[in-house]
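Running low. Got one?
___
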Amino acid sequence: MALPLDGVVVKPQDGNSCPSSVPYLKLVNRALENFYDPSRLTATQVQEIKSKYNCSIKSDADAVKYADEALKTLQDDYTDVITKPETVEILRSENGEISGIGIELKDNSPKKGPAAATDIATDKTSDKAVDKAVDKAVEPNQIVINKVVENSPALAGGLKAGDRIVKVDNEPIDTETATDTAKLIRGEVGTKVKLTVERQGKEEVVEMTRALIDFPAVKSEMRDGYLHLSVQTFGQSDTSDEVKAAIQGHPDAKGYILDLRNNPGGFVMEALKTGSLFMTKGEMLRTRTRAADPDAVDFETTNYTLNDKGIQLSSKYDSDPQGKPFEGALMQRHPDLVDKPVVILVNENSASASELLTGAMKDNKEAYVIGNQTYGKGIGQITFRNGLPDGSWLKVTNFQYFTPNGTWPGDAHNRKYGIAPDLKVTLPKDVQMNSPEDIQLKAALDYLKSKETK
């Protein structure tokens, strides 16, 4: 039953002098009922969260603000409340548009490792990879530019990958995460933003006008007769269609390089549908999802299996271990268009849906993987987009995923294992991807050429 959002209060609990907020509880309870690891909080902590901000909440906007703050107790960087303005930017990004200056940020803090976030909040399964910054009293922040979008204000302003963000509009970046910093940088089209960046020990101030930028999910280029497919994100609703079009546009390709380096992830089904372009059949994925039940904790294990008709889902619940798996939905697939050798390129910033796809194709021996160990995000999120306070959305980590061979990439936090490449090749820090000095790309081409001669 839906709860009214305004004008309704719940009687105070546990002696709290202020009434509970129904909008706040709607967000918090929904998150707690879906979060994949309920053991992180004790019953006492749960009750504290539910009443902690009672006296501070005066409006629906307050409910959104404090619910987002409360969910940080879960110590999961991917579970959060998304404000209404942020939802507008997410919808734009899902359609391949960016409203901002056109940069992707990452947190290079040594205690945390790289994690990506665009200057426009893109809901990455949303796989928005967020790492909390280290204690800035010990060292300066390490929020750096990971990628500059072509034809963007950032590119015109001379910003480069590797630049460290020092200030946004003259305000120091100290405790902010990559995503926090991205929120400060983005804004309405036509407005200005001033960035102070550090490059090779020297600071530079760049003022730019925010713009609406077309951001293709896929870039393709023929290299020595092989099709190089650089997939930037799976966070757009047509990523797999773009990959399909690129493959169909180069029917004479002798082999394929599926470049997932710096791809932070996206929609699970877009990754699986991309995989179906390279695979005929086979198990692609297994998930373990928290079943939304306010009265009990249960989990649903689902297998995703590719066949000639589509991607078949089959599930069973932990609460019925002897029960027969029940057949779920048959999801759409693409035709298998590829019968030539495939190399997947990955690095330490390949995360979430990128790791999922890499694991599926590697375990099914449909691709040879070259590069570095991937990021280690073997968890995914559900996003509730309707009926929440003040037009907000709620994103909750509610499942773990495993590759066909049972590999879990990790929790993107304290346990980050990633997917190991078949051939480890590390790109030097001072070398740009896709440049003549890109030894990972060269290794991919060498591998494909070796297969051609056999």
In short: Residues 1-15, 111-115, 120-138 have pLDDT under 50 and may be disordered. The first strand starts at residue 9 and ends at 10.
